[in-house]
Specification:
6-stranded mixed beta sheet; 31% helix; 5-stranded mixed beta sheet; 35 strands; alpha+beta
Length: 685
């Protein structure tokens, strides 16, 4: 950390808003900012947000900026990644299109799929590495160079190299890379053995191809961002949030950009877990409602769940550890419409930041969830979040809702607005059931944690529809993901396929493999150059019974000196997952996984607590009518940040602040806890 610089800034760039959370480690002072995103060049909104949150000394006081980005995700979803080529083993040219023989539409044979690398940019060469790591046929480097020249002539900006079984021995891939480097015009060359040294050729090919396609995009974005920050007198460090909830250096992000594909949503889950456990709620469902999407994740016993792989879109499979997040198109900017069958739908199309909801007055004439909340009186038209607009256009929202929803359905404008909210709430409740009930969790034991610019407007409805214990609304719900950027640990994950029977396992070799990856992870931590309180090495084995397809993740006993200790650990994990073990069937070690975690200093959330000189009387504002269940109800209005610890607010009520609005439904009550969170539960008095 630079001398004289004590501020850490988290920046989360979303589809509609860019959120900023400042914390000064020396004084404990916190500041927030929320500005409209700039989709054509996300770095502009990023810089505006950082500057907007600056104190008297400006950006010069910043030691570290931690960034959650959607640049990679958007590039893949919109098919705006770089033109990329693939060189692979003879016979494996079409792996990207064959996939796992799944299809876009579950029912029937409809749908089409365009791989990230088209067939005319995929070339085969002679080489053969066997599954045991022995090389039967060295790679034809002259053929590799010929293929690379054709790709260059076709305008390819990046190259992916994937040879079958290279996870067992990367020698042929490295020889191909060395040959290509002599003619390739840049450093954008990705080896599958570097990205994912794990068996299963489709997942390895897909992840490698996506990484290569993102390298020029992410590289250009981060270079532009660094250049723009320097113009603001920033001389600190930049870190990037990964999909696994950890952070990495800019250099690592440029080398492995595929690990940023769920960067922003992951930061929100990290913040949600920290806030909830600090407040005494270890079991929560985080509900991040931004302008474009609604992202849901489950946190059990204070820990978020990690998935081994995910699909960014159909066929775009990324196999790298990432927080399990379910996303639906139900954000504040999601557009409501009546489909051809006369059914009201909400999303997935969004008005985004430009032009934004109809009430923004920027030319959009179609209704959004935000427009419905505005018309129902739940959003103050004189106090819009983000700070760019002086007021919202109520009549534009009314006209859009009536024209596109009310009139087609024969509803008055207010009833149409309520219908939009009900449909959005129903979709959100369905996403929560997906991550809780359908995974065997009792929702009554979990608390909703709604955040993002719009999440706190729907807290009561979500609790009722799903049957959750209540809702915990953080102090700054609109910038919670930016807070997650600030508190996320450094993390680097490694995997290596072992593919041996447990009885044949060489424990000495396993310890050596662990040591190699622990050193590499430690090197990357040092490369970032930031202060860490501790470093942990987490080791797991993917194990299954012979004949099975799916593995069970098993903690590796660090002091294991014989096979029986590993077997006991596997049986304990298997029994925990399935209720019993299978006697007499041999076990196979499939993969070794090593995670190196650098623990960053945690923020004491008591710095977010309301000041002692506040009171409910000082926080109360003039009341406003809100349309609820077909009637107008007078609702109390409060300045959220002026509410004291212990304040009790009965619904209907609205809590307003610069980054979000909280709606406390009738029959609900909100209580301010010691950290400034609002705990919302059904009023049982």
């Amino acid at each position: 950390m630079s001398i004289g610089r004590s501020a850490i800034v988290g920046v989360d760039v979303g589809g509609t808003f860019t959120d900023v959370f400042w914390v000064d480690e020396a004084t404990g002072e916190c500041r927030t900012a929320k500005v409209p995103s700039t989709p054509t060049d996300q770095s502009r909104g990023f810089i505006e947000g950082v500057v907007a949150g600056a104190g008297e000394n400006g950006v010069a006081e910043v030691a570290t900026v931690v960034h959650g980005t959607t640049v990679g995700t958007n590039a893949l979803l919109e098919r705006k990644s770089a033109k990329c080529g693939l060189i692979t083993t003879h016979g494996f040219r079409d792996v990207l299109e064959m996939r796992r023989r799944d299809r876009p539409e579950i029912w029937g044979l409809r749908g089409s799929y365009n791989p990230i690398i088209p067939r005319d940019l995929r070339f085969e060469v002679e080489e053969r590495t066997l599954a045991d790591g022995s090389i039967r046929l060295p790679v034809d480097t002259e053929g590799v160079v010929r293929s690379a020249r054709k790709l260059i002539d076709s305008g390819a900006e990046a190259l992916a190299i994937m040879f079958v079984n290279s996870y067992a021995n990367p020698e042929n891939e490295r020889a191909a890379r060395d040959a290509v480097r002599k003619i390739w015009p840049n450093d954008h060359i990705t080896l599958s053995s570097d990205i994912l040294p794990e068996l299963r050729e489709f997942e390895r090919t897909s992840t490698t191809a996506l990484n290569a396609a993102l390298q020029p995009v992410i590289g250009h974005y981060l270079e532009n961002l660094q250049s723009s920050l320097k113009e603001t007198d920033f001389e600190g460090d930049i870190l990037i949030v990964q999909s696994n909830g950890g952070v990495m250096s800019v250099k690592t992000a440029q080398e492995i950009p595929v690990k940023t594909t769920l960067s922003g949503p992951a930061a929100g889950v990290i913040a949600g877990a920290h806030i909830a456990t600090s407040a005494g709620y270890p079991n929560v469902v985080t509900c991040d409602m931004g302008g474009t999407s609604f992202d849901v994740a489950l946190v059990a016993d204070g820990e978020s769940e990690l998935a081994a792989q995910s699909a960014i879109d159909f066929g775009l499979v990324v196999r790298t550890p990432m927080i399990q997040i379910t996303t639906i198109g139900a954000g504040g900017g999601s557009i409501a419409y009546v489909d051809r069958g006369g059914i009201l739908q909400v999303g997935p199309e969004s008005a985004g930041a430009d032009p934004g909801p109809a009430c923004y007055g920027n030319g959009n004439e179609r209704p959004t969830v935000t427009d419905a909340n505005v018309l129902l009186g739940r959003i103050n038209v004189e106090r819009p979040i983000g700070g760019k607009l002086k007021a919202l256009d109520l009549e534009a929202a009314r006209q859009a809702i009536f024209q596109h929803v009310g009139n087609p359905l024969g509803l008055a404008d207010l009833d149409a607005a309520e219908a939009i909210i009900r449909v959005a709430n129903s979709r959100m409740a369905g996403a929560i059931r997906l991550v809780s009930i359908e995974r065997g969790h009792d929702p009554r034991k979990f608390t909703a944690m709604p955040f993002g610019g719009g999440g706190a407007l729907h807290a009561g409805a979500i609790v009722k529809d799903v049957g959750l214990a209540g809702a915990l609304i953080p102090r700054y719900p609109g910038v919670t993901s930016a807070l997650g950027c600030v508190i996320a640990d450094m993390r680097h994950d490694f995997v290596q396929t072992i593919n041996r029977l447990l009885d044949d396992l060489d424990l000495k070799q396993i310890h050596q493999e662990i040591e190699v990856r622990a050193r590499e992870g430690g090197r990357r931590l040092e490369e970032a150059g930031i202060r860490l309180e501790a470093t942990d090495v987490i080791v797991e084995l993917d194990i299954l019974y012979v004949g099975q397809t799916h593995t069970v993740s098993t903690p590796f006993p660090g002091d294991a000196t014989d096979i029986d200790m590993v077997k006991a650990a596997f049986e304990a994990s298997y029994k925990r997952a399935y209720g019993r073990i299978l006697e007499g069937i041999p076990c196979r070690i499939v993969n070794l996984r090593v995670s190196v975690v650098g623990r960053r200093p945690r923020i004491d959330l008591s710095v977010l607590a309301p000041p002692s000189n506040t009171s409910i009387e000082k926080a109360e504002c003039p009341s406003r009518d809100v349309y609820i269940e077909g009637e107008w109800h007078q609702s109390r209005i409060f300045d959220r940040l002026a509410l004291p610890i212990g304040a009790v607010i009965y619904g209907p009520a609205l809590l307003e602040q610069s980054d979000a609005t909280t709606f406390i439904d009738p029959d609900f009550v909100g209580r301010v806890d010691e950290f400034g969170n609002v705990v919302v539960t059904l009023d049982r008095s």
